[in-house]
Structure formats: structure tokens, C-alpha cells
Design brief:
The chain has 112 residues and is mainly beta. It has one helix at 20-24; strands spanning 2-8, 11-18, 32-35, 60-62, 67-69, 78-80, 85-87, 99-102, 107-110. It has a 3-stranded antiparallel sheet. A two-stranded antiparallel sheet has the order 4-5. A two-stranded antiparallel ribbon has the order 6-7.
Length: 112
């Protein structure tokens, strides 16, 4: 059994668990793309990443990159081409405090 994402117009609309034989028997089999729940940011614990990220509803499938890309969280964030994850334009502080992104100020704000 494996996970497959149904892609319509480049957007994931559903993710299911199925056998490859089941997918091969579908009339719209070209709309289904295999994904791995153990792949995140182009990394897999066993060293075999599949399509950069586990697909989720609303993700984009970029056929050119052969990657699933999560929805962009903020307009200012940039796509990391290596991981196909979004990154803030300013690095998050690493001082141990909890932070939230302030899109208006385009900066990290410490939580109270």
C-alpha cells in the first residue's frame, strides 16, 4: 500500500492509501501522483525522499520540480528550491523563545 495524491490543475484535492494496481485500474490514473508520508523538506529517514514533501489537500504539485509544495503561508515568504518549503525572508531567532510571524512588519515577534 502507498499514498497517492489526486492532482487537478496542479492542486492536490485528495490523498488516499491504495495499491498501485488500484491506481493503474482507474480511468483517470494520470491524475494520481504517489507521495510519501515520511518525506519532508526533501528528506526521508531512510534516505529515499519522494517528491520533496508529503502531499496534503491544497498543496501544489510542480511537475517540473517533481515536488509537492505546501500552501504559501504569507505573501513575503520565499520558496526554498531544495526543500520546496516556504521560508520567511528574515531568519527566525534561535534564542529559545516562541515567536510568531508579523506579515505587516515582516519580522518575528516574541510571544508574551
Amino acid at each position: 500500500m502507498a499514498h497517492f495524491a489526486r492532482v487537478e490543475g496542479g492542486v492536490v484535492v485528495n490523498v488516499i492509501v491504495a495499491d498501485q494496481e488500484f491506481i493503474d485500474g482507474l480511468s483517470d490514473k494520470g491524475a494520481w501522483v504517489q507521495t510519501s508520508y515520511r518525506t519532508h523538506g526533501g528528506v526521508h529517514p531512510e534516505g529515499a525522499p519522494l517528491r520533496k514533501n508529503f502531499a496534503g489537500k491544497g498543496f501544489t504539485y510542480d511537475a517540473g520540480k517533481d515536488a509537492f509544495i505546501p500552501p504559501k503561508p504569507y505573501d513575503s515568504w520565499l520558496l526554498d528550491d531544495t526543500s520546496c518549503l516556504w521560508a520567511a525572508p528574515v531568519a527566525k531567532p534561535t534564542d529559545g523563545k516562541a515567536y510568531d510571524w508579523d506579515e505587516g512588519g515582516r519580522l518575528w515577534v516574541a510571544r508574551d
